[in-house]
Design a protein that fits this description.
The structure holds 2 protein chains of 2 kinds. Chain A is an all-alpha fold. Chain A has 27 helices and 2 strands. Among the domains of chain A are: 256 residues, no CATH class; 74 residues, no CATH class. In chain A, strands 1-2 form a two-stranded antiparallel sheet. In chain A, helix 5 packs antiparallel against helix 6 and helix 6 packs antiparallel against helix 8. The termini of chain A are far apart. Chain B contains 21 helices and 2 strands. In chain B, strand 1 and strand 2 form a beta hairpin. Chain B is an all-alpha fold. The longest helix of chain B is centred in the last third of the chain and has 30 residues. Helices cover 75% and strands 2% of the residues of chain B. Chain B has a two-stranded antiparallel sheet. The chains are: A mainly alpha, B mainly alpha. Chains A and B meet through helix 1, strand 1, helix 5, helix 6 and helix 25 of A and helix 1, helix 4, helix 5, helix 6 and helix 7 of B.
Chain lengths: 648, 489
């Protein structure tokens, strides 16, 4: 059996090698050879993927654990650097490194002729390192290392083209908003430390402690702190996974190169919040009130973002809001303690959303950077393969029967109805959101691929299918969007491979949550039929509304009017709650308080200066005198002490 | 032996520099850097030796008191690291200043060595008067260096700095004299006994006089008036020493003089914790508003040290390691940032953030180092700063959720100003910057800063390299002191 640390080690080595390549070639005009750099850039993610596969094959049910040393070892805090490879981290790692490798291959084509080619892949490898640490860490603190690490890579990659300050500002926003959530994560860890010491930061120890406290009945003493911890961890998740109230950074994050949006801001990083909830499932099922908050935050986010998706003209922004909306579905599932279902949706979403983003990237690439859908149209004939990939992704995300999203979304809706509080109402809103999803995604497909081409003439001349290095990953992902759902096809008896894989990790928690739950048993076919109906109604609405000439594009791609106030509602909220108060307090401290302090100081200083006439000493430029001056100063003080001390 | 060497040899080195030829700055800088390296090696040796003490040498008897003053030095788990910081950061300063001052390099090196001796002296002195002597002796070389090598307002900054800090520690001199006159010696134990026997009405004044000196030196709000100007006007290598090491003398004074001597005054101590937290917020907000690169760094340092002082006065068992790691991390990252900002100032011919920009595309190597240093200052996990801030958070959490929340807010605010700083210096269109003849970072400078950054990562992954030095007697002593002070309430 190969050691676990190989999984993060490969991308780390890749980062270092690529950083050396990038820095050592920084003086040359052309930059390093793309062939070698690209090979290195793709090799290490693939090696990491292969190690995950190797480990997955022989993994025992209880998982593999490996500690490589101590990290923090002080009087009160002991934390090891240890890895935990079990059913949950296996699934996550398989698609993180797998899709990561595919997107690395795609990026070789996408970033062709970019002067910062090597730097881009150094960041991508650093991201994969952080992401694997996040998922593989056996303690909350190590997960936090990955958690902030992926945030850092996200910042670096959003602002990757840093000569345009718009991009770097979007990066700053992402990092700062995530930092707000990260403080929640940190404080959540502190809650656990004060319950049972730093040992509770380790997942295994936490689970054991919870089980023990539950059986002894002593858990009620710790309940207030446990609930607070759960709430704070979820607050951290709202940052990383772009949920209400910390979701504003994700649409702005689309300023980064499109492969980054696919990898980081759709498939992997933004789902770490869902991962964390599943990892802490044993904690969360004990605090149902917090789970209800998770459910309603997820519901609101899914609905709000779906509406916002209707107003966007920028193709990447539509996909960004749809990511937020889909993440909302995942949190809804977690909110009704269906952690395995939420991870299943993470898994299928990773395929179809990555396919959609890479397809959008290919469109943008061939239109030389055009992202406004009002200047697209009719690309079906010119880019048939890309259209096919996008349409597969589209069918998956709206939940068309058989496609990946159908199975996972269907399971979520079913669980919402069966086991959630206010089940039927929550279910109804979630179903309505599914209709809206089909509308805005239908709008995207129609505006991009159907109708007439509406863009500029010079772009039209060279619209072309993407090169093979980009097409192959896209096609593979579209195959995933079509078939990944069969790993857990609720309608087919026995097709529960995915659930069985996760059962050792989250099964106990979920059956605990279901204790005493006697839900009416409805046939899964009813849910499937209603879900299908929602998708078809949505598609018909989109067809009816958008299969008509699109008004000519004027100005920027931002939504106007009501669309703008809806879309930027939370930006406004952040401005009034966070930014403006901070600025006002900073202004008060700087202009008022500091001025008073300085004035007072100059007044005292002025008096002393007159008394001491000290300036003359400093006009002596000879530094050599300083030693003498030191002693004179000391002597003066001694005399002062003697004089004043005598009076005391 | 090591202790004497580390305190006295820098002064000898300063004298040695006097006799070198000022006109051959190349050879002068070689000698200075060589000597700096030797001191750094000594200090690393001291870390492995750990807690040792010298035989006290009778120095003099303070007139009017019965106390004999000894020249005696002692090292402990915290001071060995601070001595390492002072030697190492001084070395970096000597390297970074290599090409800046021409024939004046010689005098710069003299000043740095004198400062180094005084800083090491204050970290290692076990006698209160000796400590005070070194504490005051630091001010003059620093002030002279600012006055001689600083920016446009250097004279005002130097005066302000010298008078402010000297005036700030004058009351301590009086309080010390009083304690010596009623007590029987000048070691910590004797001062403690003297303080216990002091009349109640005087106790607060004695405490406040000591605390004031360190509040000014660190500095904490509202005694920071000298800091931003001094750091901004000082040449960047000197600013690195001032923030990286000299400010730590204030923090050190709180740990090893204020807490042990005044261990019964916990209500006042709690006040200092809140002052520290307020300073952390204040520094961060001022840094957000700063328009001058070095001012921004000065306020950022103030914020970090405010957090460190707040951590000290939680008296938690995590405190010694928390503060030690935070101080080392801040010393390394802040000095790296000051050195790099000095280089950026040369590239952009300005310290004004609005005038800078685009350095990442013009000079990728510099961009890498500067960005790395900024991210390390953000306390991203994997760097030493994270360990320090996480442990401080744990200490604050033990006091209550509110102090921890305030510290959490500071983490967010530090991201705001640091990312803004990185953006202002590195990003944007390169043509915003005036074309200057030199726009490459010299490989020697890059290597020097690179070592600082590598150490930050190494300590972030293996903080035990630092905290193991606490496993000796000292941690127990500090904790015992704190337990005494807690029992007293």
């Amino acid at each position: 059996m190969i050691p676990l640390w190989l999984i993060p080690l490969f991308p780390l080595v890749g980062t270092i090698v690529l950083a050396i390549i990038a820095l050592s070639s920084s003086d040359s005009k052309q930059g390093p050879a793309e062939s070698i750099t690209g090979a290195v850039a793709v090799l290490f993610p693939i090696l990491s993927f292969l190690s995950v596969v190797t480990l997955s094959v022989g993994m025992p049910v209880e998982g593999i654990r490996g500690t490589i040393g101590t990290w923090i070892d002080t009087a009160a805090i002991q934390v090891n650097i240890g890895f935990l490879f079990d059913g949950l981290s296996r699934v996550m790692l398989l698609f993180i490194t797998g899709i990561g490798s595919l997107i690395a291959i795609y990026s070789v084509g996408y970033m062709h002729k970019d002067r910062s080619f090597a730097r881009f892949f150094a960041y991508i490898n650093l991201f994969l390192f952080s992401m694997t640490i996040l998922v593989l860490g056996d303690s909350l603190l190590l997960t936090f290392l990955g958690w902030e690490g992926v945030g850092l890579c996200s910042y670096l990659l959003i602002g990757f083209w840093h000569t345009d300050l718009k991009n770097t500002k979007a990066g700053n926003k992402a990092f700062i908003v995530n930092r707000v959530g990260d403080v929640g994560f940190l404080l959540g860890m502190l809650c656990l430390v004060s319950i049972g010491g730093s040992a509770l930061l380790s997942y295994d120890a936490l689970n054991a402690w919870l089980l023990n406290a539950l059986s002894l009945g002593s858990i009620s003493n710790a309940m207030p702190l446990l609930s607070l911890a759960g709430l704070l961890f979820f607050f951290g998740c709202t940052g990383k996974s772009a949920q209400i109230p910390l979701l504003t950074w994700l649409p702005d994050a689309m300023a980064g190169p499109t492969p980054v949006s696919a990898l980081i801001h759709a498939a992997t990083m933004v789902t770490s919040g869902v991962y964390l909830l599943a990892r802490l499932s044993n904690l969360f099922v004990l605090i149902p009130a917090v789970l209800n908050i998770v459910l309603f935050v997820g519901l609101l986010t899914a609905f709000w973002a779906a509406i916002a998706g209707l107003f966007q003209n920028d193709i990447k922004k539509v996909l960004a809001y749809s990511t937020i909306s889909q993440l909302g579905y995942m949190f809804m599932a977690a909110g009704v303690a269906a952690f395995d279902v939420s991870i299943f949706h993470v898994f299928t979403h990773a395929f179809f959303k990555a396919a959609l983003f890479l397809g959008a990237g290919a469109v943008i690439h061939s239109l030389t950077g055009e992202q406004d859908m009002r200047r697209m149209g009719g690309l079906l004939k010119k880019m048939p393969l890309t259209s096919l990939v996008m349409i597969f992704g589209f069918l998956a995300i709206i939940g068309f029967p058989g496609f990946a999203g159908f199975w996972s979304k269907d399971l979520i809706l079913e669980r919402l109805y069966v086991s959630g509080p206010m089940g039927p109402y929550v279910y109804a809103i979630a179903l309505l959101t599914a209709v809206i999803t089909a509308v805005y995604m239908g709008r995207l497909i129609i505006m991009t691929f159907f109708g007439k081409y509406r863009g500029s003439k010079e772009n039209e001349a060279h619209i072309h299918e993407a090169p093979a290095s980009m097409l192959i990953p896209m096609l593979l992902l579209s195959v995933g969007s079509a078939f990944a759902g069969f790993l857990w096809a609720g309608l087919i008896p026995g097709a529960e491979f995915f659930r069985e894989m996760l059962a050792p990790v989250v099964g106990a928690a979920q059956s605990y949550a279901m204790l005493g739950h006697t839900a009416a048993h409805l046939s899964p076919w009813i849910f499937a039929a209603l879900g299908t109906l929602a998708a078809i109604i949505g598609m018909l609405i989109a067809w009816y509304l958008f299969m008509r000439p699109v008004p000519e594009a004027k100005g920027g791609s931002e939504p106007q009017g009501f669309g703008a106030s809806w879309t930027f509602a939370f930006d406004k909220l952040h401005e009034y709650v966070g930014i403006i108060p901070t600025k006002v307090v900073a202004w008060l401290l700087d202009v008022v308080v500091n001025t008073i302090i300085m004035k007072a100081q100059w007044l005292t200083g002025g008096i002393i200066e007159i008394l001491g006439d000290g300036i003359r000493a400093f006009q002596v430029r000879k530094v050599r005198l300083q030693a003498a001056l030191s002693f004179i100063g000391m002597a003066l003080i001694t005399i002062l002490v003697l004089i004043y001390g005598g009076l005391l | 032996m090591w202790l004497h060497l580390l305190v006295l040899a820098p002064f000898v080195a300063a004298l040695l520099m006097v006799v070198t030829s000022g006109f051959d700055s190349k050879s002068t800088s070689r000698i200075a850097i060589l000597l700096g390296t030797v001191f750094t090696v000594f200090s690393i040796r001291l870390i492995s030796v750990g807690s040792i003490a010298t035989t006290p040498i009778e120095w003099f008897t303070l007139p009017g008191t019965s106390s004999t003053i000894y020249y005696s030095l002692v090292s402990n788990g915290i001071s060995v690291w601070l001595v390492f910081l002072s030697c190492f950061v001084s070395l970096i300063a000597l390297i970074a200043a290599k090409d800046s001052f021409g024939i004046n390099y010689k005098n710069f090196a003299i000043g740095i060595f004198a400062l180094l001796g005084a800083m090491n002296g204050s970290f290692l002195a076990s006698d209160a008067v000796l400590f005070f002597f070194f504490f005051e002796a630091m001010v003059l070389p620093a002030a002279v260096l600012i006055a001689a090598y600083g920016g446009l307002d250097r004279k005002a900054a130097a005066m302000n700095f010298a008078i402010y800090t000297l005036a700030g520690s004058a009351p301590m001199a009086l309080a010390l004299w009083y304690l010596l006159s009623v007590g029987e010696g000048s070691s910590v134990v004797h001062l403690t006994m003297a303080y216990q026997s002091a009349p109640e009405s005087l106790k607060f004044i004695l405490f406040a006089s000591f605390a004031l000196a360190f509040l000014v030196k660190t500095p904490l709000f509202p005694f920071h008036g000298w800091q931003a100007q001094a750091y901004a006007e000082a040449p960047a290598p000197l600013s690195a020493v001032l923030t990286g090491v000299m400010s730590k003398v204030g923090v050190f004074g709180f740990i090893f003089w204020v807490i042990p001597v005044f261990n019964a005054a916990e209500s006042m101590m709690n006040t200092i914790m809140w002052i520290g937290l307020f300073t952390a917020v204040y520094g961060a907000l001022m840094a957000i508003r700063a328009t001058d690169a070095k001012n921004l760094l000065a306020f950022s340092s103030m914020g970090h040290l405010g957090l460190a002082v707040a951590g000290i006065f939680t008296f938690s068992t995590t405190m010694p390691s928390a503060v030690l790691v935070l101080l080392v991390a801040h010393g390394l990252s802040a000095s790296a940032q000051f050195v790099l900002t000095g280089i950026a100032e040369r590239f952009a011919c300005s310290r004004d953030l609005k005038q800078m920009g685009g350095l990442a595309s013009r000079n990728p190597m510099f961009g890498f180092l500067f960005g790395f240093a900024g991210i390390a200052a953000l306390a991203v996990p994997g760097t030493a700063g994270f360990i320090g801030e996480f442990l401080i958070l744990i200490s604050l959490w033990e006091i209550g959720p509110l102090p921890a929340l305030v510290a959490g807010v500071c983490l967010v605010l530090s991201a705001v100003y640091m990312l803004r700083f990185i953006q202002a210096v590195l990003f944007g269109k390169a043509d915003q910057v005036k074309e200057t003849p030199c726009h490459k970072i010299s490989s020697f400078d890059a290597a020097a800063v690179g070592i600082l950054l590598v150490l930050l990562v190494v300590f972030g992954v293996k903080p035990n390299l630092i905290t193991d030095s606490l496993n000796g007697i000292v941690e127990n002593e500090v904790v015992a002191d704190m337990e005494v002070s807690q029992d007293a309430n």
